[in-house]
């Protein structure tokens, strides 16, 4: 396999609604940003690019089939090859990995990965119905299944097994909203307290509105290249791109759509991990796909201790509870320790005032320094690519340049992970990015 570089990226403003644009120009906002950031004109880039991968979750929101090819045409990339990926909430993460595969295999030298969603085109109840169609429509959906209900059930099991508290979940919400306060692209830029989170309207106990991500309109785009592609881009820009960021590891995992079908097996262990005793795994309180994806990505990237070797994680926090569960799946702590890890300060940024007192080392491995899905928004097809763009800027050390404020910059960041998650853990991707 060839080395693969994440050269540039851009995002649109994430918002509850973007009535000013259709999905095509919204993607072009992100695409143009990515080109401008490396100083290449659209005309010149169109000559260099070999193709693209399109990412969007549902045809229902824009009531348009073949939306990807309409974007391809709008960006001026026809007649070059393209294909669409779809994998629920993990669609954007899958898109980045498909672009990686196109370049690593030698099929392309320069590939564009773009994603979008326009969720405001339907009412909230209808949007929730469309999202619920990503559960089993012959089993879960007819009995009133919806995702906040699923995640409430999963976290109550986590609480019963491990003693996780609602205050620990609320700490995640405070962290992510406070981070997003300094992110101009974020949809929700609020200063919250633990009490604010717990006193917000209850959706599905114990999850309040502030524990849950919001539906959004938004787009993101990434430019992925081989070493040959990088030279072509640098020649077009008449400059050398530094620092470079490589995609050094990818991993994917899957699990049964119906949670009742998930067996109780032995925990797949990381090489450094001690066995567990009497742990019903994965049950409904752990994401086997997340553990599988992490094991693969770490092996691929040569990571033997993520808490020491990863400087930050952009993690799919559709719910505060799923962020806590994923700490454990990704090996940031052992199973059962996600709640205390959330409240310890390890996942917080040391230079942001959260109004909280921490019992441990602050900033050991910041999680969602961008604000995550809960605060940035969750335009599903764009989300995993949004994570990649924010991770790129962290590793380039350019957060202040892009945000106008360096408060969210992880000091000296050299390696980051992005994690994208679908359904109740049915698809999960983990990708490792490293400053070259």
Properties at a glance:
Peroxisomal Thiolase, Chain A, domain 1; globular; 16 helices; 436 residues; 5-stranded mixed sheet; 4-stranded mixed sheet; alpha/beta
CATH architectural type of the largest domain: 3-Layer(aba) Sandwich
Structural class: alpha/beta
H/E order of the elements?
Answer: EHHEHEHEHHHHEEEHEEEHHEHHHHHEE
| Overall body shape | globular
Number of domains: 2
Strand content: 15-25%
Helix fraction, binned, reads: 25-40%
- Looking at the structure, the CATH topology of the largest domain is Peroxisomal Thiolase, Chain A, domain 1
Instruction: Using the CA coordinates, give the radius of gyration.
Output: 20 Å
Low-confidence stretches: none
Q: Largest sheet, described in full?
A: 5 strands, mixed
Distance from first to last alpha carbon: 17 Å
Average pLDDT across residues? Answer: 95
CATH-level-4 superfamily name of the largest domain = Thiolase/Chalcone synthase
CATH class of the largest domain: Alpha Beta
Count the strands? 13
Going across the biggest sheet, name each strand in turn: 1-7-4-2-3
Helix run count: 16
Please explain how this structure is put together.
It is a single chain. The longest helix is centred in the last third of the chain and has 17 residues. The chain folds into 2 domains: 140 residues, Thiolase/Chalcone synthase (Peroxisomal Thiolase, Chain A, domain 1, 3-Layer(aba) Sandwich); 188 residues, Peroxisomal Thiolase, Chain A, domain 1. It is an alpha/beta fold and 436 residues long. The protein is globular, with a radius of gyration of 20 Å. Helix 1 crosses helix 3 and helix 7 packs across helix 12. A 5-stranded mixed β-sheet has the order 1-7-4-2-3, sandwiched between helices. It has a 4-stranded mixed β-sheet with strand order 8-13-12-11. It has a two-stranded antiparallel sheet with strand order 5-6.
